Amino acid sequence: MTITFIPVVSADFWDISGDTMLHDPSITQEGSTWWAFGTGEVDKNGVRVLRSFDGSNWHATPVIFPQSLSWWSTYVPLHASNQWAPDIQYYNGRYWLYYSVSSFGSNNSLIGLTSTDSIVSGNWRDDGLVIRSTTADNFNAIDGDLVIDENGQPWLSFGSFWSGIKLTKLDPNTMKPTGQIYSIAARPNVSDHAIEAPNITYKDGYYYLFVSFDHCCRGVDSDYKIAYGRSKNITGPYYDKNGVNMLNGGGTILDAGNERWIGPGHQDVYNNNVIVRHAYDANNNGAPRLLINDLYWDSNGWPTY
Question: Among residues 87, 145, 196, 240, which one is catalytic?
Fold first, then answer.
C-alpha cells in the first residue's frame, strides 16, 4: 500500500499568541468569540478550554469537569484523571461536547456527552454515556466527532487503533446512538493499526473524512500525520486521491509536519474553511501547541491549506 504525500500549497499559520498549549483541539465560535477545547493536562482533572476574542490572542479558562463524574468509574474503573479528545459542535440550539474517558493503551473506554446553550455561561449539563468499549470489543470508544449530514441528521464517528474508525447514527433528541455501527477506515496492513481521531465534514456532495495516522504523545519523536479521503455517502466507502479505500489503509496525507512543528494531528475542520490540530514544538522541548490554518479546496474538490 502506497501513501500519497501531497506538498503543502501554503503553510501560512494563523498568527496566534498567549496560552496556546492544547492537545487534540476542537474549535468553534459563539458570537465573535472563539473557543478551543482539548485534552486536559496530564494528572489534572478536566477538559482544557481556551478562549480568544479575536482568533489571535488566546488564554485559558476554567476546565470542564474539575471533579470526575462518579459514573465514569462504573465503566472505566482505572481511567486517567484528565478527559481526552473533546469535540464541540453547535446543533439544534445547543453546544454539544463529546469527550473520552480512558487510560493510555487500553480500549476499556467510553465517550461521554455534556452540553450547554451558551459556552460563556459555563452551565454544562451532564448528558451521560454515549458509547463504551471493553477489552472484549475490537474497537476503542474514544475520539468522538459529531457530524451533521446533508439532511440535518447527526452522526458520531470515533475510534482509535484496533479495527479502526467507526460511525453510528444519533437520535437528534438525545444525541445518542440509534443502532448500527459502521466501519469506515482502518489500517489492516500496519502492525499496530495506527489510525485515530476521525473528523468528517460535508461539502459540495462529498463527505470528507480526516484521520490521524501513526503516533502522537511522544513529543519531538511523534510521527503523527493527517490523512483524508472522501465519499458520496456518509457511511462510505471513503477513497483517497489514488482511489484506495480507507478501509484498506488508504489516505492522502494533508500534513506531515515540518522541522519546527512535529507530528501534527487530531485535526478538526470548522465551517469548511478553518482547520486546527496540535503539533509538537521542536523549539520548546516538544510541547503540544494549537495550530490554526485557513482551509482551501482545489479545483477537483480536495482539501489543501
Answer: 196
